[in-house]
Amino acid sequence: MENQPSSAVEQRLAELGMTLPQVAAPVAAYVPAVITGNLVHTSGQLPFINGELTVTGKVGAQVDADTAKGQAATAVLNAMAVVKSMIGDLDRVTRIVKVVGFVSSDPSFTGQPGVVNGASELLGTVFGDAGIHARSAVGVAALPLDACVEVELIAEFS
Predict the structure, then answer these.
(1) Half-sphere exposure of 63 (CA within 13 A, CB side)
(2) pTM flag (> 0.85)
(3) Which of 8, 19, 30, 72 can pair with 118 through a Cys bridge, CB separation 3.0 to 4.6 Å?
């Protein structure tokens, strides 16, 4: 039973064929998350898979919107791993309060909300009503390591 998910949230991820990754080491001078009161504020998470970015470039140029949407889901999975590392169990999350998604965008690309839906839809699937959140989807000129997306979130817990 050692490979069984440790929470209902992780069980829902497993049903989707996903597992929480190891928390990525920060790429600069910051920590992965900070707790204040009953809120976890994550730092921006890149869509690392096994420590590597599998997709790079600007959305609307080198990266299509559907691929970027999948990358946003990967980034928020990494953010969930950070939250778990801070509070021990994702079942303690009572609400995903806010999601901010940054999309490295070609100047002509205006579909940032659709890209960030990759993160929002995954949160809704695994957290149910508690995963419904406020959100910003922002187009930017560039992201660290030429990532196509970056996602941060604020989670409330008990």
Answers:
(1) 26
(2) yes
(3) 72
